[in-house]
Specification:
This protein has three helices and no strands. It starts with 13 loop residues before the first helix and ends with a helix.
Length: 75
């Protein structure tokens, strides 16, 4: 049987390998992409919220207080 022992200097955890091999340019690019996605979502919400709402007149029933008062006075 082969028994290999590793010293602390030879052994690196998976996390340590990932951190050491991380591409700095990639993280900058990912940050820019995330920023663009959030910015576009906020712009879309703002654009939707600022649009006027057009309701069809046949479904809108408005009664003002003055019209109701005139009807009651005639009775």
């Amino acid at each position: 049987m082969k028994n290999e022992t590793y010293s602390a200097e030879e052994f690196e955890s998976t996390y340590a390998l990932l951190v050491r091999s991380e591409e700095k340019e990639r993280s900058i690019f990912e940050g820019a992409v995330y920023f663009a996605v959030v910015l576009s979502a906020l712009f879309s919400i703002w654009q939707f919220a600022s649009q006027p709402i057009a309701l069809p007149l046949s479904t809108v029933h408005t009664t003002s207080i003055s019209q109701t008062a005139k009807t009651i006075q005639r009775a």
